[in-house]
Amino acid sequence: MECHVSAKAGNFALDVNIQVPAHDGWLGIAGPSGAGKSTFLQALAGFNPSASVAGNWGDLSFSQARNVVLVSAQTPLFPALSVAQNISLVATHNQCEQEQQSVVSLCECETLLTKNTASLSGGELQRVKLARALLASPKLLLLDESFSAMDKALRQRILYRLKAYLGEQVRVILVSHDVDDILQTCENLAQINGGQCLAVGRPEALINAEADTDTLPLSCVIYAAVQAVDPAAGLMALSLGKQLIQVKLQPGVSPGTKAKVRLSAKEITLATADAEVVKTNRLACQIIQVETVNHRQYRVALSCGEQKLVALVSQEVFTRSDLKVGGPVYACFDE
Amino acid sequence: MDLAAIWLTLKLAGISTLLLMLLATPLSWALSRWNSRFKAVVQAIVALPLVLPPTVLGFYLLLAFAPDSPIGAAWLAVTGERLAFTFEALVLGSVIYSFPFAVQPLYAGFAQLHPDYLHTARMLNLPWYVRLRCVVLPALKPSLLIAAGLSFAHTIGEFGVVLMIGGNIPGETRVVSIALFDQVESLNYAGAHKLAAILLVFSLVLLMALYWLQGKRRLKWNVM
C-alpha cells in the first residue's frame, strides 16, 4: 500500500506519505490533536477539493476510488429524516436492503430506529452513522474517531464484529485516540504528527519501540497465550512464562489462542517482595534499565522472561524502595 | 367595493411571488456559495429597493419601459404592444421592488445549510433528487415560506412604483393601494375605509401566520 496526500487547511499544511509493504489488513492512524489525522481522511474522502491524493492500496486507487465512505463529525445524520430513514434511504440507493438488518444489529442500533436524530446521545449517533456508512457499500471505509463516545466494551465488541463483517473486501483506515482500538484491529499503524507521517509498522512494534510519546502513550504490548476465559467476570488469564496474569476479556478470544494486551506505563506500580500492593496482578520481573524522563519520574524497563515491560515511577518512591538495576521487583497492575 | 382592484392586486402579488421564488432561489444559492470581492456589489444592488424611495425606482423603470428605450423597444418588437402602463410592467416592477424580500431569507437559509450535509449525501451515493428532497428542501423550508410570504405581502403593499409605471387603469393597473388613493382624493372616505381595512387586516393576518409558524417550529426540519 502506498499513499501520498498533500492538502492545505488554513495555515496547516499536510504532506503525508505512507508506505506499507503488505497491502492486507486495516491501517490505524495515531497522532496528537491537530496532527492532521482528520485532514488526511477528509482529503481521501474527497471533502477537500484543494487536496492532492495519489497512490493505491492493492487494486484500489486512492485518486479514482469510488465508494470512499467517511464516518466522522463532518458526516452528520440528515436531521429531516428519522434514524430509520437515514439508514434505509442509504441502503435503498446502494442496493443494500438485504444487508440492512445485519448491519443494524452489528452496530447495535435496533432500539434506536424509532428515535429522532436530535434525541440520540453521542455514542448512539456514532453507531447510527457507522450503520449508515456500511450500507453505502464502501470500498474504502475511513473511520475518524467513530467510536470515541462509546464505552470501551461496546467499542471493542463493535470493532471486533466490524472486522469480521468487512473481511478482506473493504479497506479500512481507522483514526483513534485510543491506541487499544488500533492495536486490536489494525495490522499496520502510521504515526502522524505535524502534518507528516513519522513511522509506519506493526502497532505492537511501534508501541514497544516507544518512538514518539506524543503520538503513542508510553506502554508495552504483551502478546501471550490465553489460558482461560471467564465471560461472567469479563476476565481472561494469560500465561507469561510460568506466571499467570488476569486481564479484561477481549471479544473473540478463547483458550489456546494468543491475545495482545497493552499495559500503560502509568498503570504499573513497582513493589519489593515484602510490600503489600492491592492490585490484581503481581509479576516477578527484573529491572534492566532506569532513565529519567522528566524531573520527577523514572522510566523503568523490566524484563519478565521473554517479555519486556515499562513502568513510570516517581523518583522519590524509586529511591525510597531501594530498587536498583539488575535487582528483582514486582510489577503490579490491575486487570 | 372595488372587487376588480382586489382581484388585480392578488393576481399581481401571486405572479410576482412565483417569479421571485424562481429567480431568487438559484441566485441566493449561488450568492451564499460565492466568495469574491464583488459579492458586496451584488448584495448592495439586490438590497437597493429596501432603501430607495419607490418613486426613484419607479422613475427609472418608467424610463426603461418607454418605447424608445432598449427594454421598451424590445418588448414592443416581441409582443407588438407598449410595455409602460400595462399589467406586465407592474409585474416586472414588483419583482424588482420585492427582490430583496425574497433574496434575504433565502440567502440566510442557504448560508445555514452546512456543506457537510451535501458532501455527506453525495458521498453516500444519494442521487440529486433525493438530496434535494431529503436534505436541501427541508433545511430551506422555513426560508422558502418566509421569502414567499414577505414577497407576497410586500407586493400587495406597493404604491409608489405602481403609480409611476402603471398609472391608474381599471382592471389593468389599478391595484388596491391606488384605488384607495383615488377614493381619498375624491373624498369618498367610506370606500377608502373599506379598502384600507382590507389591506391592514390581510397584511396583519399574513404576517401573524408567518410568525406563528416560525414560533411553532412547524417550519423546522421535517420531510416525510
UniProtKB/TrEMBL annotation, chain A:
GO MF annotation list: ATP binding; ATP hydrolysis activity
SMART domains: AAA
Domain ABC transporter intervals: 1-219
InterPro entries: AAA+_ATPase, ABC_SmlMolc_Importer, ABC_transporter-like_ATP-bd, ABC_transporter-like_CS, Mo/tungstate-bd_C_term_dom, P-loop_NTPase
Pfam families associated with the record: ABC_tran (PF00005)
Superkingdom of the organism of origin: Bacteria
Keywords: ATP-binding, Nucleotide-binding, Transport
Full protein name: ABC transporter domain-containing protein
Organism: Alteromonas lipolytica
TrEMBL record, chain B:
GO CC annotation terms, alphabetical: plasma membrane
Membrane topology (UniProt): Multi-pass membrane protein
GO MF entries: molybdate ion transmembrane transporter activity
Taxonomic lineage: Bacteria, Pseudomonadati, Pseudomonadota, Gammaproteobacteria, Alteromonadales
Cross-referenced Pfam families: BPD_transp_1
Lineage: superkingdom: Bacteria
Organism: Alteromonas lipolytica
InterPro entries, A to Z: MetI-like (IPR000515), MetI-like_sf (IPR035906), ModB_ABC (IPR011867)
Keywords annotated in UniProt: Cell inner membrane, Cell membrane, Membrane, Molybdenum, Transmembrane, Transmembrane helix, Transport
Full protein name: Molybdenum transport system permease
Stated family: Belongs to the binding-protein-dependent transport system permease family. CysTW subfamily.
Biological role stated in the UniProt entry: Part of the binding-protein-dependent transport system for molybdenum; probably responsible for the translocation of the substrate across the membrane.
SUPFAM superfamilies assigned: MetI-like (SSF161098)
Membrane-spanning ranges: 6-29, 41-63, 83-103, 143-165, 195-213
Main location: membrane
Domain ABC transmembrane type-1 positions: 6-210
Annotated compartments: Cell inner membrane; Cell membrane
Keyword check for Isomerase: no
